[in-house]
Each structure stands twice: as structure tokens, then as C-alpha cells.
Amino acid sequence: MKDVKQTIAHRDADVLKGLAAGIIGGLVAAVVMNQFQKALGKMITGEERSHGAQSLQAGAPHHGAGRMLENHGAEDADDDSAERLAQTISVGVFGRKLTESGKDTAGTALHYSYGISMGAVYGVAAEFLPAATKGAGIPFGALIWVGADEIVVPLLGLSKSADEYPPSILASALAAHLVYGLTAEMVRRAVRSVL
To answer: In the chain, which end has fewer C-beta atoms inside a 10 angstrom radius, N or C?
Structure first.
């Protein structure tokens, strides 16, 4: 019986429709996540930052990208991980540092690109593995938080490790990613139903 259900699910799956729904869901979710994080960040620190959950996780790591930027005189302890990634690409690929406004613009573009790409992956996965949508996208958001924010980003030297931030910052990052996952699923589902 399980094989029959999987065969029916695969037959009904449409990669392009899932991709389109996921891209739209990821974009809307990234916008909503950023607005949520701006409001939450303002309540926690009194300032608004524009790059989603990573924006409160500033601080100069001394390994990976952080060390490379330090060696090129491009490290700024106030940069968040999106700005640090933008600066790493600019210095590593083009050999020049970004201005403050350039870091902000490029960091925002990278953050939205990541949100859209994760939405695209989620949209395609939902086509072939409907169980991926269980929990209204909240487990998806939590998975991104753990995988990206808490493991990959610190390992690459784009932020400090999780134990170097206060619990309130980590909780706000988790909350923002849960909002992302929930929004991505709501929008993906709505778009997919009309495709």
C-alpha cells in the first residue's frame, strides 16, 4: 500500500510547479522574516538591522572568512554574517573592500538569495516528499536555523560560535527562522494550489 501511495505522489509531482511555488514562498518568507527580525531586534537592542536573523549575530570570528578579512584589513566587528560574506566575496574575488553601503546592499541581496534558494529546494522537496511539509513549515525553518546559523555560518568564520552569543540573540534567530518556515509553507501551499 505504501508503494502505491508513493507512486501516486510521484505521478502527481511536478518539479517546475513545486520550484515556482517554492521560489515565491522563499521570497515572501525572507521578506517577512526580515521584517520580523527588524522589529524583534529593535526591541532587544534598540536598533534595526536589515539582514534577518543573522543581523544580531555580529562579531569578528578569528578563523575562516573572519581571519581572511582580518588579514586584508577588511574585518569589521559590527558586520553581520551576510555583510561578512559579501565582504569575503568582494575581497577574495575582486581584491577590493566594499563600502558600508555596499556591504549593506550586497548582504541584503545575499540574504534574500539564500531565502529564495532554500524556498526553491523546499518547494521541490514538497513535490516528492509531502511529509516535508508536516508541521506547517516550522520544522523546515528550525532545520535551516540549526544547519546554517548554528553550524555552517560559524564554521566558515562568518559569525562567532553559538556559545559566544547571549541566549536572547539565539532565541530571536530561531524565532525568525520559524517565522520563515511557516511563511514559506503557507505561501508555497497557496501558490501551488493555483498552479
So the answer is: N
Joined together, the cell numbers standing for residue 100 give 558600508
Which has the closest alpha carbon to 121: 7, 34, 4, 29?
29
Residue 73 grid coordinates: 584589513
Mean pLDDT, each 10-residue run in order, the chain (195 residues): 50 86 98 88 70 59 79 81 89 92 91 96 95 96 93 88 84 92 98 95
3-state helix/strand/coil string of the chain: CHHHHHHHHHHHCCHHHHHHHHHHHHHHHHHHHHHHHHHHHHHHHCCCCCCHHHHHCCCCCCCHHHHHHHHCCCCCCCCCHHHHHHHHHHHHHHCCCCCHHHHHHHHHHHHHHHHHHHHHHHHHHHHHCHHHHHHHHHHHHHHHHHHHHHHHHHHCCCCCCHHHCCHHHHHHHHHHHHHHHHHHHHHHHHHHHHC
Beta carbons within 10 angstroms of residue 174's beta carbon: 17
Indicate the pTM of the whole model.
Answer: 0.86
